[in-house]
Amino acid sequence: MKLDDGEVPDFELMPIGVFAQRSGLTSSALRFYADSRLLPPAEVDPVTGYRYYGADQVARATTLRQLREIAMPLPAVEAVLDAGADEAARLLDEHVAKVVGDAAAARQKAAVIKSALGSHVPGPQIAVLRGPVLADAVEQVLTATVHEPGMAVLAGLHIEASHEAIALTATDRYRLSIRTVVPARPAEQTWAGTVDGDGMRAAVAEVRRSALVRIEVVPHGIWLRMPEREDRHCRLLPEEFPDHRLMLASLGEATTRATVSKDLLLRALEEHPGERLALHIDDHGVNVRSAHNEHSGIPLPATVTGEAVQVRFEMITLYPAVSTAIGPDVMLDLRGHDRPVTIRSADRGDLTTLAMPVQFDHSA
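The structure assignment produced for this chain is given below.
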């Protein structure tokens, strides 16, 4: 068998320098891991003390290096290296969860330190909200976020505070969700800004357990002040939030309106096998069809006014928009096959989601 340049057969040993190049570990790191019994050499020359490694040790050394690169401590590294595939995966998940939790805790502590370094004077209060109401609103609206490189604002939560209401908005460019909540006390001033969605999401559990949450604005974020609970900080995002008000103003009047059971519609979507689907709406109700089949589907009873229309959606766009609606029935306002569809509760309008359809190709 002919070997490629630099390749070492499994039955031959290689000196520590060659093994270091093959594994990506330095010679000093290999000596440390040998002394730690994590990666002992296959052979040590009794006279010179030179260490030699086998080609069959490269995989273990590479995995060891990768585990250390994600800051896994040595005892956990040893456990992963000696475990089966399923147990190793579980240990990796535990480590990542701990790293993420530690990072969130560090972010909160850093916010406290920055606040103390700057000023002890509280920031201006923009709202006092009931904790459970705010928690529900945050969870509902953040379903319309996405993490996309170079566009951090698409993972953000836009907050607009007026004296009468607080509007929470999020968009991933295919959905736009808006939830309006009435403050427990009138807002002291108007304010608008976009905060980190992950920070708000992480605060939801504490917010939900608080009777009242006071929102204060500071130079680089907001504070969620909760009596008898740890205050939470959410950083402001510098990017400008998309001009959603202009889009809303340009929608025009709905040409078709359908009111349908939320549970029945969700069940039909769950039973649909494809990634794309079509909603056919006419006097007979709502029919959930395959995106490529206009003649069969799952019929749903609905109250319909206006003209018949068929609109196609990505499942990942439509399903979250319907599932977060409030109440037993959802109202769909449609404006044609290529225009955004407004989805909201049939009896409560404080959560509204716009869902973008996909291209309607009659030749498909």
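Interim note for the steering committee: The mean pLDDT is 88. The two ends are 53 Å apart (CA to CA).
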